[in-house]
Predict the 3D structure of the following.
Amino acid sequence: MTHTRSAKRNEAIVVVDSGGANLASLDYALERLGVRACVTTDAAIISSADRVLLPGVGNAAAIMSRLEELTLTPVIRALSAPVLGICLGMQLLFEHSAEGDTSGLGLLPGRIERMAATPGRSVPHMGWNTLKIERDDPLLHGLSNDDWFYFVHGYYAPASASSVIATVEHGEPYAAVVRHRNFCGVQFHPERSGQSGARLLANFMTANT
């Protein structure tokens, strides 16, 4: 499927059609920023993009299988443009996920683990939460530990991962924002996170990597 709009500032902004239910919400969030994106599975369009967003909702094994069937895994791995993984899309950037014992894209070192329910910690982690910014990054420009973001996830990247630039507390700290070279990711849904999410998306559209 290819749904095309011209990009702001003549940039080619691409959203990878990973089959997730949040594609329309992400498209609308970008529209509100004045960004016109192309939602596609076309390898040539993705390869030539100036910025790429990889959303994900659902099951890690199912989405990785879809990307592999579409021969998009080598395309994503080879990207030199800025890439933003969202929620499950962030988790797929890592080497492996415990969800379905799934190999990820291997672009960020580390493994995604299953969150265990404990007293005071519900699973999945669902709802609004703040971040703890661990180090400065252009993706977080203008944001602080007081900003709220919307999370829905039952698997997580450890707060100790080398790529972590911000964490979230839900019983214990987890990775909330990560970066390795041009590949970055957020565990929350910026498209559902109001002004804070809009600021992060705007930062991704303008920041150099």
